[in-house]
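Listing S7. Sequence submitted for prediction.
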Amino acid sequence: MRGDGPRIVIVGAGGWVFPMELVRDVLSFPALASSTIVLYDIDVPSAERTAASARELIELGELQARVEVPVTLGDALRGADVAITVFQVGGADAYASDIEIPRAYGIDQTVGDTLGPGGIFRGLRTVPALREVAEAMLEICPDAFLLNYANPMSINCWATDLLGIRIVGLCHSVQGTSEQLARELGIPSDEVTFDCAGVNHTAWFTQFRRGDEDLIPRIREVMRARHVDRTMPLLPRSDDPYESIERVRTELMLLTGYFHTESSHHASEYWPWFRKTPELVEEYLDRRWNYLEVSRSSDTSQGNAEIVADARANGIRHGGEFAAPIVDSLVTGTERVVYGNVRNDGLIDNLPTDACVEVACRVDAAGVHPVPYGTLPLACAALNEMQITVQRLAVEAAMTGDRDLVHAAVALDPLTGAVQTLPKIHEMVDRMLQAEARWLPQFAAPVDVG
């Protein structure tokens, strides 16, 4: 990288709060204080809104960083060292179709960004946009890294890797869950070491230790007592509806032997057992959480202002995401371990080689180096295989525009198949293809749905 600070491009920089969190994270590292932060979005005024808050942070910290808001993707990527993708193709309108059409068929998704009809359709919309970014990078800045935060993580990274770009998908679920498990056990999180591997949002903590002590048996004991048997009190919680009892993940742990990396809200929509009826949802989750409603009520300007206000009160502090530490390691050579989503290539030897997996990665000045994991416990691998089957169909559909593969991907989704018949699934998919046609040009055939 250049000596005058890296050129960091955020693609989708006009989105809700998260782009600003990434800007804050970058500015929290001294070695990145002279970065050029490029905020690109097809909605230029939204990118300018983020830029205004970013410049406030730079002024507050008396830093040498610069902010640019280019009009074209090519201008944004020229000279880039790192690009970070954070966009949601179709915005709130497309997302509403992802959630509301399946809900009319009894498929109630909490987020719909990973699997299910919502996750699949989000992937179908996002892969072409990532292709545009990747192809531009190969032409303009072929040595740059692409750090992807856009969901569905596994589908997006799998498809984009096929184009030959250096891509790593990033998510906070590994570090977030490790901290949660430490809290459940009453142990400081910085005293814990762990091994974790699988697919994004369902990676498994197969080692969890404090020194020489194996904490997996305690996790099984405590989580079962708190969240299934209810013989131990729950930890204090906030009023945030995202927080719920962890019965879903605990039941999955009792099935496989190991705890995984996404919340019980999220996990409940990945499998056939927890959301087939409203009564089951109430049984497994003590609070309702609907991310579509959250996103509709969110105020980006207010969120950005809160980040600036926090920095004014407490300093510019890293929020915990992996992107900025990776860039810092590329610049300084500082060795770190992060968790990334990458092509398997034998990293997990009992999952398909071409799948996208989430594993530990060593980062230094030379790049991001995935660490071979070995063999997942059999039941953990089996559940991941179910997800990979759906992801494979979705990737191929997104890359080829094959409508039949869209139908197959949705039909093989575990929750969808548990709730609906094949004729109704076909009807639902056709309705979604019609409703989202403007964001899915690769699926051109019109559909007449009554």
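Caption to Listing S7: primary sequence and predicted structure tokens for the chain studied. The domain at 171-300+312-445 is CATH 3.90.1820.10 (LDH C-terminal domain-like). The radius of gyration is 21 Å.
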